[in-house]
Amino acid sequence: MKIVFATNNKHKLDEIRKILGNKFELLSLADIGCHDDIPETGVTLEENALQKAKYIADKYHCSVFADDTGLEVDALGGEPGVYSARYAGGDGHDSEANMTKLLHNLEGKENRNAQFRTVIALIKEGHTILFEGIVKGIIIPERRGGEGFGYDPIFQPEGYDKTFAELGNDIKNTISHRAKAVNKLADYLKNL
C-alpha cells in the first residue's frame, strides 16, 4: 500500500520508515513532487496535523497522513506545545536555541515533568482518523547524548536513566510518542 507522509523533515521520515518497516511504501512530499510551504496555523497539534493532511489530500488526491508533535512541560503550562519547533522564535527548527530557552525558563523550577505528544491525522478515501502517542518523562538540566534531534538531549523518558539522545534511535523508535502513534496508524491500516 502506498501512502504519503506529509513531511519534508528527513529525521521524521527516516524514523517512521524504520517503525513501519516494509509494510507500506511510504512516500515523502518530495516523492510526489510537492514543494509547497504547507500552512501550519492551528493552535493545537490536532489542528496542524489535520491541516497538513487535508492540504495534500485535496491537492494530490491520495492517501496521506501528517503529524504534529509537541513537547508539553508541566511547569510551563504545557509550553512549548504546538510551538515546539519554533519556541525560540525565528523561522524555527533551531534545536539548540529551543533547548536553551526551555532550560532557561525552567531555572529554579522543581517540577520538571514533561511529555512528548504526537498526533497523526490520516485521510484515506475521504475518511479522517486521528491517532495519538504520548511518552512521559522529565526535562534534565543539561544536554546529554548525541543521537536524535530536537529536544532529545534534554528529555529523559519515564523508566530510563538516559535521554532519548543517549538511548539511540533503535530504542527511541520503540518507545517514543511518534512510535506509539505510528503503531496505532499501522495497526489500523493493516486491518483495512
Descriptive account of the structure:
There is one protein chain. By secondary structure, this protein is an alpha/beta fold. 33% of the residues lie in helices and 24% in strands. The protein has six helices and seven strands; from the N terminus they run E-H-E-H-E-E-H-E-E-E-H-H-H. The protein has helices at residues 10-20, 45-60, 95-106, 164-167, 169-175, 177-190; strands at residues 2-5, 25-27, 64-73, 80-81, 113-124, 127-139, 155-157. Strands 1, 2, 3, 4, 5, 6 and 7 form a seven-stranded mixed sheet that branches. Strand 1 (2-5), helix 1 (10-20) and strand 2 (25-27) form a beta-alpha-beta unit. Helix 1 packs across helix 6 and helix 5 (169-175) crosses helix 6 (177-190). The protein is globular. The termini are close together. The model has no long low-confidence stretch (mean pLDDT 93).
Structure classification = alpha/beta
Span between termini: 11 Å
Mean pLDDT over the residues: 93
Any idea what the shape is? Answer: globular
Strand content: 15-25%
Low-confidence runs:
none
Please give the share of residues in helix. Answer: 25-40%
What's the helix-strand series? EHEHEEHEEEHHH
Q: Radius of gyration over alpha carbons? A: 16 Å
Per DSSP, the total helix count is 6
Let me know the number of strands: 7
The profile of the biggest β sheet is:
7 strands, mixed
Name a few traits of the molecule:
192 residues, alpha/beta, seven-stranded mixed beta sheet, 6 helices
